Amino acid sequence: MKNILIKLGEIDRRFIFLLIALSVLIPLIRPEWINIPIKTTKNSEVVFNELNKLQENNKVLVSFAYGASTMPEIHPMSIALLNHLFSKGIKVYIVALWPEGVMMAADVMNEVISSGLFNIQDGIDYVNLGYKQGGPIVISGIATDIRSLYKQDINLNTFDNIPMMDGISNVKDFDFVFDLSAGNPGNAEWVQFACDENKVPLSSGCTSIMVTDAIPYVESGQLRGILAGMPGAAEYEDLVYNYLQSLDGNKYINENVKIIPGKATARMSSQSMAHLLMVLLIIFGNISYYYKMKEKE
After folding, report:
1. Confidence check: pLDDT of 183 > 70
2. Where are the domains of the chain?
3. What is the Cα–Cα distance from 14 to 88, expressed in whole angstroms?
4. Helix ranges (DSSP H) in the chain
5. Is there a contact between 269 and 76 (Cβ–Cβ < 8 Å)?
């Protein structure tokens, strides 16, 4: 046994690199092979429960304020969010507060539509109002008079030709606001300039590094829970996946389409496997080193 442990410490580093690569790639390529259970935290459950209270034809404003660099953390929760909302027949209004947010929103919508789960139509079930420069000023404008900022959607359709825009004039006309952000403007600005003053429920999905700044708003009730980075995305994905699986005869979901787990779940499995392998390699490496030193004494 001692000789085996010593030999383990002498493994060619190229073989170690291969093991690490496999531990990362296998859960991503074949997530069904390695399905590590996800334990949801209170904040993710609060977000899910708050959104699950919404009713058919309620109106939700979704703000995209992130870019390609934070896609791995926020994109999966964006997709899970829209799947959750569309499964309940909720009307989705999209705005982008970052220039890249337009592309992020379009990519998320393309993924949701291409999944075939829902028969949704632009202008009837969702509308993308595009990007406006100004950050907090735009949020403040949405809070008071959205029509002074936006005259048409991203496809250049005027509001008169968009049935969803009937009766929408400011943030009070929405039943919920959801912020997807990786910086400024983010959930703090939505609290300060729009939602708190007008008593509109607000939740947020953000990068892990933003969570410490957002927690005071969560504890005060100004934020209805928060999805924190990749772990939060995986937790919310799991909650939405289980919810969609439990639905029977839902008129908004195409029954012949298979519901699949989200990408964050696979990425968390990949991360966990890589971390586990590294810990084992460190343990065996230290044991091997110990026995080598004992032999030299």
Report:
1. yes
2. 42-266
3. 50
4. 2-8, 13-29, 42-52, 71-87, 101-114, 136-144, 187-190, 196-198, 211-219, 229-246, 263-296
5. no
- Quote the pLDDT of residue 3: 73
Q: Which residue has the tokens 């404003």?
A: 61
| Other C-beta atoms lying within 10 Å of the C-beta of residue 71 | 17
Task: Give the dihedral of Cα atoms 105, 111, 115, 121; nearest 10 deg.
Answer: 40
CATH number for 42-266 (one of 3.40.1190.20, 2.40.50.320, 3.40.50.10160, 3.30.70.3270): it is: 3.40.50.10160
User: Which pLDDT belongs to residue 158?
Assistant: 93
Q: How far apart are CA 114 and CA 124, in angstroms?
A: 18
Q: How far is Cα 229 from Cα 271, in angstroms, rounded to an integer?
A: 13
Q: Which two tokens stand for residue 76?
A: 């999966």
What is the value of pTM for the model shown?
A: 0.84
pLDDT for 297 equals 66
Residue 70 contacts residue 98 (beta carbons within 8 Å): no
Q: Compute CA distances 41 → 3, 140, 215, 239, 244, whole Å.
A: 44, 32, 14, 11, 20
- pLDDT of residue 192 exceeding 70, the answer is yes
| Rounded average pLDDT over 197-209 | 95
